[in-house]
Amino acid sequence: MTNRHVTIKDIAREAGVSPALVSFVMSNRVAGEQLYRVNPETSKRILEVAEHLHYKPNNSARALRSGKTGTIGVVVSDIANPFFAEIARYLEDDAYHYDYNVIFGSSDENPEKFRRVVNVLLNKGVDGLILVPCAGADETLREIVASGINTVLIDRKVPGLEVSSVVLDNRSAARVIVEKLLSRGARRIDMVSYSMDISSTRDREQGYRDAMEAAGLSDNIHIERVAHNDYACIPDYFREARSRGVEAFMMATNTLSSLVLSEIIRNGFRVPEDYQVARFDRNSVYDFNGHGIIYVRQPVDLFAGKAMKLLMAEIRRKPKQEIPVEEIVLSPEILE
Amino acid sequence: MTNRHVTIKDIAREAGVSPALVSFVMSNRVAGEQLYRVNPETSKRILEVAEHLHYKPNNSARALRSGKTGTIGVVVSDIANPFFAEIARYLEDDAYHYDYNVIFGSSDENPEKFRRVVNVLLNKGVDGLILVPCAGADETLREIVASGINTVLIDRKVPGLEVSSVVLDNRSAARVIVEKLLSRGARRIDMVSYSMDISSTRDREQGYRDAMEAAGLSDNIHIERVAHNDYACIPDYFREARSRGVEAFMMATNTLSSLVLSEIIRNGFRVPEDYQVARFDRNSVYDFNGHGIIYVRQPVDLFAGKAMKLLMAEIRRKPKQEIPVEEIVLSPEILE
DNA sequence: AAAAATAGTTAAATCGTTTTAATATCCCAA
DNA sequence: TTGGGATATTAAAACGATTTAACTATTTTT
Questions:
Q1: Sign of the CA dihedral A231, A236, A240, A242?
Q2: Does domain A170-297 bear CATH number 3.40.50.2300?
Q3: Nucleotide D13: closest residue by CA–C1'
Q4: Dihedral through CA A140, CA A145, CA A147, CA A152, nearest 10?
């Protein structure tokens, strides 16, 4: 209340130096290739005065002059979805260690909203973007990349886009868990996936096909594609699957498998006695339903860590340096 | 890539007016009590030029000059916790409608980290704060309030602090669900709570006591207080509770009840046949474990909505207007 | 001893807006 | 015709930092 904003000028006056020198000390910066040379004693005095006056740099002024906001924008499908919430949490912590902040946005898997949210973040003036691209956002993504904004994709990649990404080896992961189901004797294995066109689920489908074909079960391949947020069809699907004599389900995501599991149990069946189940992502539900569920654990911490590291490398590169495009593929862990 | 930043000056030149006028039009502002009067035709022309040049206002400059960043800071316990993730999601959407952005931080229920995160947000220059105060953060909170930063507390309130808050009527909610357990015949009802000192769990404990005492069961009152993140003690506790002949559990939170439920089921018991359970917050686990669980549904959307509304009212009040302190208590919904 | 390099510091421009106070124009009443 | 009020517009001063180029000293090299 009492204290008007303390500025660099106040410190300069108090310490008997110029504002410029204070600036140099506060953000120990490089000019050209050289480090600014400040007398250690002067530097110490300035820091003491700053401390004493409770100086807090004004980020807006900094950002205005330097063009860097120290903020990065993150767009996920839905921050309330546990998978993305966890990633968000790691990103938040990682950013902190780089002296950065994070602003989040949720796309709801809607390309129009995706564009809008990205624009809001860009208007805010983020130094970079970490995006979970949603289906149909290719146009927006191309514009972003073309405009030279530092960007890293996460969880899903977009073919033909010159941009770094961090994804899971979804195809192998899916293959392995389906093989596990096969080794347990299941033959009629359905996969439940999303109808939206994103690389992660498409790759998982391919892994499922790989495993089924390798086992000579091409005829048993059945991929049920559910529209995002249209979950009313699950009961019908389950009834139909039962009539086909399905023995096991492989679920592409968290949400889907909760829905199908719920349907299985509502109908009075048990896992794994009546139906085998394999799925992506852990869930507290396992704690209550025996030990029969095979699942893929995604290294959420690495998703965040690698993405942040790539982004920071892009942000910190010298203006004329080439943009390093790197595609990181993370290995899953298969657990029960 | 091609386009250097388009500024207000570019528009002014193109439209043949002064930068000031462009500014007035872009943010249709009030001067003193009066609205700036701009000729509708001029206004239209300026907007057209702006549109045509793809003008994007520079937020840093705006913020520097006006002192408003259009960003609000939110600190929760852990953004990865479903309850807070959902609140975060609503806050994000609500903020958008006020033309604001949100930056999140997680305190991990650690007062030191709470202070640090709040300071990071303040350094960033947020226009206001929405906080879930953690135990032991009273000092930090008092400083915040004393410094006149617009603040609203959510989920938990801090007695003796002159600040608006939005909380659940935790006491009644707890009383009602315990009464439900009682009406189902349970007499030996334990409550599982946190040892940390926050208003929400304390109020819930009081509600539990109210119900037990009203039923003449004062002697059966047992509140098990678990330290945050020290969940290894749950199995011991459960064994001890069994030996006491406990028939029902009332759990103070999401996380706690998942843990206890898991322990119940791991030991081969069933809900509600062997143990009755009542708890706060819904969870997908219910979908898989019968219909016996009584739970309190918190109106998460209202938490966010009311808090944002209060905060906006504070932010938009005239400098000399009094700070309106309002305590909103939300009604829970009791479900099975 | 002169020239060159180095170290330490600063003046002043600049970033893109907002905002205050002033001005210019027109209209109508006195 | 003069003056007062609207109405519409603008010049110019902020806002608080960063950053370039310049300017002293001082030291080193030739």
A1: positive
A2: yes
A3: B65
A4: 110
Burial of B91 per CB tally in 10 Å (0-12, 13-18, 19+)? buried
Question: How does residue A316 score in pLDDT terms, banded at 50, 70 and 90?
Answer: confident
pLDDT at B97: 92
CB contacts, 8 Å: A98 with chain B = none
Location of each CATH 1.10.260.40 domain in chain A:
3-57
What pLDDT sits at residue B175? 97
Q: In this structure, what is the dihedral angle of CA atoms B121, B126, B128, B132, given to the nearest 10 degrees?
A: -20
**Per-residue pLDDT at A35:** 62
Task: Please indicate whether, in this complex, the C-beta atoms of B82 and A79 are within 8 angstroms of each other.
Answer: no
- Residue A227 approaches strand D within 7 Å at CB: no
Q: Which 3 state secondary structure label does DSSP give A60?
A: helix
| Chain A interface includes B82 (CB < 8 A) | yes
Sheet holding B189-194, edge to edge: B222-226, B189-194, B248-251, B276-280, B294-297, B333-335
Chain A residues inside the 8 Å CB shell of B71: 103, 124
Q: How far is it, in rounded angstroms, from Cα B219 to Cα B212? A: 9
User: Distance (Å, rounded) from C-alpha A119 to C-alpha B214?
Assistant: 57
Q: Is A235 on the interface with B (CB under 8 A)?
A: no
| Strand C contacted by B214 CB (< 7 A) | no
Nearest to A124 among B59, B80, B261 (CB): B59
Q: Which amino acid is at B304?
A: A
In which residue ranges of chain A is CATH 3.40.50.2300 found? 71-168+301-335, 170-297
Q: Tokens standing for B177? A: 């669900």
Average pLDDT, chain A: 90
Contact call for residues A133 and A155 (beta carbons, < 8 A): no
CB proximity list for B143: less than 8 A, separation 6 or greater = none
Nearest CA to CA, how far is A236 from chain B (Å)?
Answer: 18
> The tokens of B328 are what?
């909103």
Nucleotides of C under 7 A from a protein CB: 7-12, 14-21
Please state which CATH class domain A71-168+301-335 belongs to: alpha beta
Q: A3-57: what CATH class?
A: mainly alpha
Q: Rounded CA gap, A195 and A201, in Å?
A: 9
User: Quick one: tokens of A143?
Assistant: 């514009």
Burial (CB < 10 A; 0-12, 13-18, 19+), residue B35, is: exposed
pLDDT at B319: 61
10-residue mean pLDDT series, chain B (336 residues): 75 94 82 65 93 94 93 94 93 93 94 95 93 96 93 95 96 96 94 95 97 96 92 92 94 88 82 88 60 86 97 82 86 88
Angstrom CA distances, B169 to A62, A193, A290, stand at 44, 41, 36
Structure tokens at B303: 């938490």
Could you say which DSSP state residue A331 is in? P
CB-based contact (8 Å) between A146 and chain B?
yes
Nearest chain A residue to B123, by CA = A56
Give the per-residue pLDDT at B199: 96
Q: Nearest chain B residue to A72 by CA: give it.
A: B103
Looking at residue A308, its amino acid is M
